[in-house]
């Protein structure tokens, strides 16, 4: 990128103004935001370095000494379950010569680099440096082990989701997550068995920009055309935190219990308090789907708490992994396993139905940029998509003045 190009804003004033117009006349983000390396580089700095983003699950490392390596937006990280039960995150780089330290998930007492056997404690402290000063040596006067531990990444866990802040300078996680916690309070996430999720063992790869996965789920406009198994809500409530999330809340029309769908007793799985209260009143049970920028989607469904984790690989490649949590004995019982699997299957089917359309948008993003084609929003159905794109414009592309 030459100096002239680097000095130009990646979104023009005209494009920002068009995005922040009232939804009925607003234009969407331009095509290059979904494919250009320059845009990816800016988003990686602003969204994946300077602020909190989700990278994994605490339940991926359930036992003391469990290691879970993660690659997200180009960052090589490792989650480590500590003896005190906490999960800490470190840069997955040996302090000796900078090789990747942990290459696969495993359980250890100490962490040893395969190249020169530098060994670390679970809390990241450097424990030993064998042969560093010659045969039968373990140390050298110029090496202060206390200064050569693994580099820790600022991290926090929210309902099994591990969030990190790479540069360590973002606001407190309590501030970041406050409205998110409030949004889900009526569903009582702590009542789900967060230590024993279903699914989440495999990752699906999609040739799309990470933003398109969010946008595909932020509206119900497409439901009657793409998802025959779902009922379209008559309307839904959109909420947006300009720094953190965009969410949609509605009632589930004609809700059928998962136990019934699986040929079991209707109450094979428990209901969250909000759903139980609504059903007792003869109303549709509520749900909320929350798109937490940039890498996690959290859904409170009547019988499940569902977390979809995105792992951006590049401007045009994203992988997806999903975990589901349930309430009460049915969360882990063998008898309720068909009901849990039924929910996993439903969500896999629905999201697979969206994939072709998202990849179609991705494949044409460069072309619509070349021909100067803008996109539009449904004023009734796509308020949340509009809000989401504005969040991206603010946080990554300096659109505060256009808000």
Automatic annotation (TrEMBL):
<protein>
    <recommendedName>
        <fullName>Rieske domain-containing protein</fullName>
    </recommendedName>
</protein>
<keyword id="KW-0411">Iron-sulfur</keyword>
<dbReference type="InterPro" id="IPR036922">
    <property type="entry name" value="Rieske_2Fe-2S_sf"/>
</dbReference>
<keyword id="KW-0408">Iron</keyword>
<feature type="domain" description="Rieske">
    <location>
        <begin position="52"/>
        <end position="164"/>
    </location>
</feature>
<keyword id="KW-0479">Metal-binding</keyword>
<dbReference type="InterPro" id="IPR015879">
    <property type="entry name" value="Ring_hydroxy_dOase_asu_C_dom"/>
</dbReference>
<keyword id="KW-0001">2Fe-2S</keyword>
<keyword id="KW-0560">Oxidoreductase</keyword>
<dbReference type="Pfam" id="PF00848">
    <property type="entry name" value="Ring_hydroxyl_A"/>
</dbReference>
<dbReference type="InterPro" id="IPR001663">
    <property type="entry name" value="Rng_hydr_dOase-A"/>
</dbReference>
<dbReference type="Pfam" id="PF00355">
    <property type="entry name" value="Rieske"/>
</dbReference>
<comment type="similarity">
    <text>Belongs to the bacterial ring-hydroxylating dioxygenase alpha subunit family.</text>
</comment>
<dbReference type="InterPro" id="IPR017941">
    <property type="entry name" value="Rieske_2Fe-2S"/>
</dbReference>
